[in-house]
Amino acid sequence: MTNVLDIKDLEVSFKSDGKEVKVVNGISFSIKAGETLGVVGESGCGKSVTSLSIMRLIPSPPGRISGGQIYFNGENLLDKKEREMRKIRGNDISMIFQEPMTSLNPVFTIGKQINEVLLLHYKMTHAEARKKSIEMLKLVGIPRAEQIYDSHPYQLSGGMRQRVMIAIGLACEPQLLIADEPTTALDVTIQAQILDLMRGLKEKTNTAIMFITHDLGVVAEMCDRVVVMYSGEIVEQADVDTLFNDPKHPYTVGLLGSLPKVDEKIDRLYSISGQVPVPGSVEKGCRFAGRCDHVMPHCTQEDPPLFKMKDGHDARCWLYDPVHGRKEEAKDGQTTLGREGS
Amino acid sequence: MLQFVLRRLVGMIPILFIITIISFLFVHLTPGDPIRIMYGAEIDQETYQTLREREGFNDPLPVQYGRYMVDMVVHGDFGQSYRTRADVSEEVMRRFGYTFVLTILSMFWAILIGVSVGIISATKRNSIWDRAGMVSTITALSIPEFWFGLMLMQIFAVQLGWFPTSGAASPLHILLPSITLGFGVAATIVRFTRSSVLEVMREDYVRTARAKGQKERVVIWSHVLRNALIPVVTMAGLQFGFLIGGAVVVEQVFAWPGLGSYLIDSILSRDYPVIQALILLFSLQFLLINLIVDISYGFLNPQIRYD
What is the number of structural domains in chain B? Predict the structure, then answer.
């Protein structure tokens, strides 16, 4: 399968108080056609900034893509002119945002907002756009689609609005859909409905999805492969089964350990101690060192590279380095850190 | 909708009633005697008393107020001017058109300049255009209207000779006074539009519009502006009240034969019926403009329902 998206060494910087701070620090990953890639990490780890960079929608100033390449179907998006980018946005790559309550324009009807993207990218008459929009509303499971077409956003619930956002996102049959925490603002039952809907649509349309979330449960349900981000870096990537069964990076282990389990009774959930470092505050060494239970002297000396575990499974941790890592564990290559808290 | 308008119109009646009481007391309790001002000190005590009796000034205030209200509400009679003996309503109607045209045109300039400069300032934030716009608004807000009017007159009418200095003989005559009057309001609208547009530009739905591949120009003029104008319209409606006040000064400067100069002359000579009628008229105008603003909300903001 070919890669729809190939990100190489992406760096994004933001200016604050006259100083430029890297919030995304050399990220590389790719998404294959029809694949769903989960991007997981705490708030502020650079997930959303990465996704906005792909759309070239980083607010600038203060933000700036300061390095790397973003290949979409083999073409570097960072070389595109704004006019060329506009043809891609909403058409080849589209995006669903976290806040359905504020992501639709309150003064326009739902119909007008779906029509907008259709009329921008297709040669269509208004009547054709209307027909297609109502079709899209039905596709995303909105009842009374004709009526909703003429409604305004305030007349719809959060779950309905997110369905409308998905309809807008998929209207032009994009090759890549970026979903930036699409279920975070919704309650659990609606979350499940939206996830079902997205999974169903993905099977129908074979759209590649970049699914940004901090919910590991959602990842397990939705994704084929997972990228774990921490403080602007990828700390681990693997296919979803490997990641859940054999996590390598202490941060991933900690994240998984902090999930409640159905079959165990515990008084207190495990949590990773400490805070995500402020971007730019760690000068050298591993960014997770300050919170890591397995920290070694070398960790604070040098930034760890991504170590290849096996095919398609990488972890950014000195534990897996033959020289500095734990010799006896590294030898058999089967290191499995104990799941904390279990 | 029609019901809403009717209800609002009926609701104006008690407000206008209270305004008649206030304006009546305000006028009659102000020191100064219209008879003395009109005839000076030459007339003897006897004539003075006869004249006072004729105008009804010797009756208790509630009786005078009752007579004023009965004449106005029952007979539709606003009385006669003490100075000219002319019918107040006729004179007011004749002059009202002039003030109306002047304020409407001023408001037109104010909105035209205010909204466009506000948008440019917001979209090119911190640029030289934005800075220039902000400095000009501060200046415009600090300059008194009469001085600004005189300067315009000096430059464009006296030195360049492009426009007539004063009066109302041709359509060209209205240009300088309307620009003078609209200038201060334009400055307020610039600041309001700028902050409102900046606020809306940060909204999620603006990012959504960009993510659809929409052109920046359409994002601003359609998605941002429709939302950003809602508070601007409210503010512009309120500014209309100040515009009426400003018209009094500007009409005086440019000898514009509207209600403003009429009001000043009437106040100076304590011409009670005229002052009362004008206060009532200005209040009514203000209430009607607010009603129009409220109705226009419905077109801007779909969440507003008139029931």
Answer: 2
**How many C-beta neighbours within 10 Å does residue A338 have?**
9
Distance from CA of A94 to the nearest CA of B (A): 7
pTM (global) more than 0.90: no
Asked if the interface predicted TM-score (ipTM) of this complex is over 0.95, the answer is no
Question: CA of A116, closest CA in chain B: separation in Å?
Answer: 8
Q: pLDDT digits over B182-231, tens only?
A: 888 888 899 999 999 999 988 889 989 988 888 888 888 888 988 888 88
Q: Which residues, 6 or more positions from A116, have their beta carbon under 8 angstroms from its beta carbon?
A: B209, B212, B214
**Residues 162-221, chain A: which have Cβ within 8 Å of B?**
165, 168
Structural domain span for residue B45 = 2-74
Nearest CA in chain B to A109: B302
Query: Collapsing DSSP states into helix, strand and coil, what is residue A8?
Result: strand
Cβ B208 vs Cβ A105: under 8 Å? yes
Give residue B208's identity as a one-letter amino acid code.
T
**Domains annotated on chain A, with CATH:** 3-228 (3.40.50.300), 245-332 (no CATH)
Beta strands in chain A (DSSP E): 3-16, 19-32, 36-40, 63-72, 75-76, 93-96, 176-180, 208-213, 225-230, 233-239, 307-310, 313-315
Instruction: Select from B74, B108, B133 the last residue of a domain.
Output: B74
Q: Measure the CA–CA gap between B251 and B257, rounded to whole angstroms.
A: 7
Look at residues B151, B140, B121 and name the one whose alpha carbon lies nearest to residue B185: B140
B205, B213, B302 member nearest A121 (Cβ): B213
Half-sphere exposure at residue B135, Cβ-oriented, CA atoms within 13 angstroms: 7
| Cα gap B256→B236, rounded to integer Å | 24
CATH of the domain at B173: 1.10.3720.10
CA dist A9 and A26 (Å) reads: 4
